[in-house]
Amino acid sequence: MSRRSTKNPRDAVHHPVFARFYARFSVTADLKGGIAAHREELLSGLSGRVIEIGAGNGLNFAHYPGAVSEVVAIEPERNLRRLAAGAALRAEVPVDVVPGTAEALPVKSEAFDAAVASLVLCTVRDLPRALAEIKRVLRPGGELRFFEHTLATGRGLATAQRAVDRTVWPLLFGGCHTARDTVGALEDAGFELGSYRRFRIPEHGVQLPTSPCVLGVARRSAVVDRSNPPH
Fold first, then answer.
1. Long-range contacts for 25-34 (Cβ within 8 Å, ≥24 apart)?
2. Are strands 48-53 and 68-74 parallel, antiparallel or unpaired?
3. Rounded to two decimals, what is the model's pTM?
4. How many alpha carbons lie under 13 Å from residue 138 in its C-beta half-sphere?
5. Cys-Cys crosslink for 209: which of 110, 116, 164, 222, Cβ 3.0 to 4.6 Å?
6. Radius of gyration in angstroms for the set of CA atoms belonging to the chain, rounded to a whole number
């Protein structure tokens, strides 16, 4: 498939100020904050067709292993999508950057061997619907690799996260909600949880409301109920 980027004048998500900030901050965080190592861990061992949800400016693309035959990268924000298209041209695996939202993925059901969600589930408007869509597009037994903000296990920090989410934080940071229970949401969506680990960014030092993260694997069941077939 050819590598391309599509612009839509009526994008469902449009955060031009945040997009410019994120494009700069994310590169620094990768180089100096250790995020690049987490991306490498997230994508290690993937193969076949992969869909990436909320690709941002495409920083994951350089970490996909050669066994990946194609990446379809969904990004709703046009400024980040343009940057992702440039990153796709430099990637060592085929990457196709397309517009779309997590709640309505513009791809066929059961079309992918794996899905990747990297610091994006905190921003989607409807998390249960987004997870249902990811489950729909995965083949039976396909896996979801996730690296996400998550609700802290400590009461004090969790309270701070909920307070931050009620302020202007989501407006300033592209819809980010720091207090979402990522693992619980995956279980509620019917995913089978594999291994995962919790950590903070940075892993040492002051712990801010945005610090707690979780990285791991979840799977769509290999047994599919055909009484309600995917569309």
1. 26/56, 26/57, 26/59, 27/57, 27/59, 29/201, 30/59, 33/201, 33/202, 34/201, 34/202, 34/203
2. parallel
3. 0.86
4. 28
5. 164
6. 17
Q: Residue 173 in 3-state DSSP?
A: coil
Q: End-to-end distance of the chain based on CA atoms, in angstroms?
A: 23
- The C-alpha atoms of residue 214 and residue 194 are separated, in whole angstroms, by 12
Q: At what angle do helices 16-32 and 78-90 cross, to 10 degrees?
A: 40
**Domains in the chain with CATH codes:** 16-219 (3.40.50.150)
Backbone angles phi, psi at 119, to 5 degrees: 55, 45
What are the strands of the beta sheet with 192-200, ordered from one edge?
A: 95-98, 68-74, 48-53, 112-118, 138-149, 212-219, 192-200
For 59-71, write each residue's pLDDT tens digit: 999 999 999 999 9
Q: Which residue has the tokens 């994508």?
A: 43
Distance of alpha carbon 28 from alpha carbon 36, whole angstroms: 10
Pick from 13-17, 150-154, 174-178 the range whose average pLDDT is largest. Answer: 150-154
Rounded to whole angstroms, what are the CA distances from 186 to 83, 180, 219? 29, 11, 9
Residue whose C-alpha is closest to residue 43's, from 69, 64, 72, 71: 64
